Amino acid sequence: MSFDLLQEKIREKKNPTVAGLDTRIEYVPAHIREKSFREHGETLMGAADAVWEFNRGLIDALADLVPAVKPQAAYYENLGWPGMAMLEKTIRYAKEQGLYVIADIKRGDIGSTAQAYAEAWLGTTRVGGTDCPVFDAHCVTLNGYMGSDAIQPFLDQCVAQGKAAFVLAKTSNPSSVELQDLVAGDRLLYAAMGELIERWGRGTAGTYGYQALGAVVGATHPSVLKQLRRKLERTFFLVPGYGAQGGTAADVRHAFDELGRGAIVNASRSILCAWQKTGKDGLDYQDAARAAAIQMREELKAHITIL
Amino acid sequence: MSFDLLQEKIREKKNPTVAGLDTRIEYVPAHIREKSFREHGETLMGAADAVWEFNRGLIDALADLVPAVKPQAAYYENLGWPGMAMLEKTIRYAKEQGLYVIADIKRGDIGSTAQAYAEAWLGTTRVGGTDCPVFDAHCVTLNGYMGSDAIQPFLDQCVAQGKAAFVLAKTSNPSSVELQDLVAGDRLLYAAMGELIERWGRGTAGTYGYQALGAVVGATHPSVLKQLRRKLERTFFLVPGYGAQGGTAADVRHAFDELGRGAIVNASRSILCAWQKTGKDGLDYQDAARAAAIQMREELKAHITIL
Fold first, then answer.
1. Considering CB atoms only, which of A107, A171, A192 is closest to B110?
2. In B112-197, beta strands by DSSP E
3. Contact with chain A for residue B244, Cβ under 8 A
4. Could B179 and A192 be called an inter-chain contact, meaning their C-beta atoms sit closer than 8 Å?
5. CA distance A91 to chain B (A)
6. C-beta atoms of A120 and B85 within 8 A
7. CB-CB: which of A24, A145, A176 is closest to B179?
8. Does B108 touch chain A (CB under 8 A)?
């Protein structure tokens, strides 16, 4: 239950990396795109088909190296319903290859609506007398601005189905300061959100001591990682902002506990777009992605030992 | 530009109501559901087909009464890609019937991802050399927890295409107090968010003086409505929480300026589910929805005069 499954996969692969499937159509090598466009035209369907082909190749290339993938919903939504169909296929295929799937949706809405979202992404939707699985990921990301009403329906699904969710605390982007760094009482707002996350998750801890509700804390703020790691002992961290956004292995080691557990670091572009740096027009995209994932694993290994 | 189109439609219909298309499958009358299930089985496709039939009937029934509809994305996502296809159809059909469409998505993510969302919901996605429209609503709802990075790409689309967006300030749900009512400096957090919204929107005001970035402020907090209306002179309000959640016409009048402008009030269940109270098994769902919409218009008219 909780984050146990993720932590076990991390230990098994000795790699606390999640590969972000932020698959913009421009990131797909030309030979894949052209094949899809020949078949479906320059349409949303054509783009979605190319994204799916690329994702499948990436999953095949990475499945023995990384414990998890994180598709970013925006890059499927912007291809309309064909994109959402390919997101469903991507999640299913990644699970079949033994990967843990975090759907990066950052949803947040009032109770009954949050319940519909929770059914869509972690549970099943009731149609007549039939329970239909929909996107059926292992884990999602959430936005807690609306308070526990927006979180509890997801937490209920997590507990019922051994799943988990990450709530935004301190994000990696520059303008995160505008709201998240406001002074709220004797701490900053992101710390207040962190406390709420740990409080909401109470009573859901798994074998490794982490609750079913984790927190998103950006790699671009190492001192915040250190501070929140100390304060939120039962909260698993998802750490974006590594690489392209500036976070280093030395920065993100603060997200881990003394046993090298309790966190996972995201990399998207550095793996997806690794082929753009080898001068082979993307024909080697699988090898390039593998090489980038291995390099990141080794960088992290130099700073973090996972017991 | 900005909220001009919405304000004009409100004045034309003399009705500041937006009908929420929060179309849960359980809200669809049995005769529509059964027909869809006979054709497609008790599947996501069957449910999506029923939701679309119901939406089309509601839009036909309401198009001369209300200025706007607001489909809630969660109730389409939880039907997977068939649900998203029906959401696209619903938005297109509502626009064809002259309605202003607010896609209630509450998205919020970092810059490049926010851009993909903005393309999906307000703009177009570039596929090869072709610009493809996707959901193409007039307006969306957003979550500003991540700061201006999450908002600016939408604002750019708003300015380029005469569209608009609402950002969550103070939501109508009970647990909104947990974060939104934290003390931040000399005001509460929702007021700080309100100030950010008005600042982010600067320079985008339309004919009626309202900027392209509005705020969501719940009907369940009339004193907050009054306070924010005074403070945020150029910010259009979307007001949820009327009816089922407890907000009255006397409460929501505080959302409007002295000319009866600058706000729109949402009603979902009271209109969608009006048929459940007439004892006719939903065969009269269009008449029941019309009657509920007329009743709400008259309630609002008793407190708000739109000039």
1. A171
2. 124-127, 130-133, 139-142, 164-170, 183-184, 187-188
3. no
4. yes
5. 13
6. no
7. A145
8. yes
A294: its two tokens: 């291995």
Q: What is the complex's ipTM, to 2 decimals?
A: 0.97
The reply to whether B153 touches chain A by the CB within 8 Å rule is no
Q: Which residues pair with B213 in a beta bridge?
A: B165
- Residues of chain A contacting residue B174, judged by C-beta atoms under 8 Å apart: 147, 149
Contact status of B124 with chain A (Cβ, < 8 Å): no
pTM of the model: 0.98
- How far apart (Å, rounded) are the C-alpha atoms in residues B233 and A46? 46
Give strand pairing partners of A254: none
Of A109, A184, A77, nearest to B183 (Cα)? A184
How many A-B residue pairs are in contact by the CB < 8 A criterion? 232
Decide: B267 and B21 in contact? Cβ < 8 Å: no
What's the whole-number mean pLDDT along residues B182-209?
96
| CB-based contacts of B175, cutoff 8 Å, min separation 6 | A146, A147, A148, A149, A150
Exposed e or buried b per residue across A85-116, where buried means at least 16 C-beta atoms within 10 angstroms of its C-beta:
bbbbbbbebbbeeebbbbbbbbbbbbebbbbb
Closest CA of chain A from B305, distance in Å: 30
Tokens 């995201």 label which residue?
Answer: A266
First to last CA, chain B: 19
pLDDT tens by residue, A228-246 = 999 999 999 999 999 878 8
Residue B212: its pLDDT value, please? 98
H helices of A63-146, in order, are 74-77, 80-96, 111-121
Contact A127, B190 (CB under 8 A): no
Q: Is B174 on the interface with A (CB under 8 A)?
A: yes
**Whether pLDDT at B1 is above 70:** no
The interface residues of chain B toward chain A in range 5-64, judged by CB-CB distance below 8 A, are 22, 24-25, 33, 37, 42-44, 46-47
Tens-level pLDDT at each residue, chain A (307 residues): 689 999 999 999 999 999 999 999 999 999 999 999 999 999 999 999 999 999 999 999 999 999 999 999 999 999 999 999 999 999 999 999 999 999 999 999 999 999 999 999 999 999 999 999 999 999 999 999 999 999 999 999 999 999 999 999 999 999 999 999 999 989 999 999 999 999 999 999 999 999 999 999 999 999 999 999 999 999 999 999 998 788 999 999 999 999 999 999 999 999 999 999 999 999 999 999 999 999 999 999 999 999 9
Q: Which chain A positions have a beta carbon within 8 Å of B177's beta carbon?
A: 147
Q: Cα angle at B22 between B91 and B166, to 5 degrees?
A: 70
